[in-house]
Write a structure and sequence with these properties.
- With 253 residues, the protein is an all-alpha fold.
- It has one domain.
- The protein contains 12 helices and no strands.
- Helix 3 packs parallel to helix 9 and helix 7 crosses helix 8.
- The chain starts with 20 loop residues before the first helix and ends with a helix.
- The relative contact order is 0.12.
């Protein structure tokens, strides 16, 4: 009698080593798939948020010291022709009072940016979670979605040193735009007063925004069973809709 054939069982794939928070932070730049895949094991967003918060505080502190919040506020008002017209019609005393209030508000929002970042990230995470869960049948929890979004925002920390170098190198305070402070997009080179629509549209084509979109698409593909092309396309569509809304508002107002 011949011996029964021995069935070979497929060997299980070796488990991926767990990443520490620091390894996640590094890998999001060099090997993002590893970071996002690890988020399925333990979704957390505090580490990237903390890094983004620290760089944000450093940024607003340097801007406040080198540019000054009154100058920053004046520059923002000058970008709105109607706001300039309203200010010019006011008596000098009332104009000074309004300017002081506007400066305080601008400074307050700037230093509150870490909190505002959390709010924005939560909204984006909820929208993307709903899009993939209800639109594509994925099963992504809010914690995982929040982690993907926050890690995708990390390239923004590289924009801060570029801006600080420009400010410390002696950029013209009168031309400083805190909303678009460095030439990483086409809108930087377009006058927002003369061409508000083209400025808004050009600002959307930002190196770091595109980087974030790609990372977010990779992230949602890694934490779900969806194809990367589908997740990237979904993120691009949402970004395009937001950009279109901004362009329409710029055209109307």
């Amino acid at each position: 009698m011949s011996a029964a054939p021995v069935l070979s069982m497929p060997s299980p794939e070796p488990a991926q080593p767990r990443l520490s928070e620091w390894q996640r932070l590094v890998n999001v730049f060099v090997n993002p798939s590893r970071t996002f895949t690890d988020l399925k094991r333990k979704p957390s967003w505090w580490a990237p948020w903390l890094i983004l918060a620290i760089t944000s505080v450093i940024f607003v502190s340097v801007v406040g010291n080198k540019i000054g919040w009154e100058r920053v506020t004046e520059n923002q008002i000058r970008l709105d022709a109607k706001a300039v017209e309203r200010m010019e019609k006011l008596p000098a005393e009332e104009r000074a009072r309004r300017m002081e209030i506007s400066t305080t508000i601008t400074k307050g929002f700037a230093y509150a940016s870490p909190v505002l970042l959390l709010v924005v990230a939560a909204i984006v995470a909820a929208v993307m979670m709903g899009s993939f869960n209800f639109g594509a049948g994925a099963e992504i929890g809010f914690g995982v979605s929040m982690a993907v979004v926050m890690y995708s925002f990390l390239p923004g920390i590289l924009k801060t040193p570029l801006t600080l170098i420009s400010v410390l190198a002696g950029t013209d305070p009168e031309g400083f735009n805190i909303r678009n402070p460095v030439a990483t997009n086409l809108g930087f080179f377009i006058n927002p007063v003369e061409h508000p629509v083209f400025h808004k549209l050009g600002s959307a084509f930002d190196i770091f925004a595109i980087w974030t979109i790609i990372l977010m698409g990779i992230g949602y593909a890694c934490v779900s069973k969806l194809k990367r092309s589908s997740t990237v396309t979904t993120v691009v569509i949402w970004y395009a809709l937001i950009t279109l809304a901004g362009v329409v508002l710029a055209a109307l107002f």
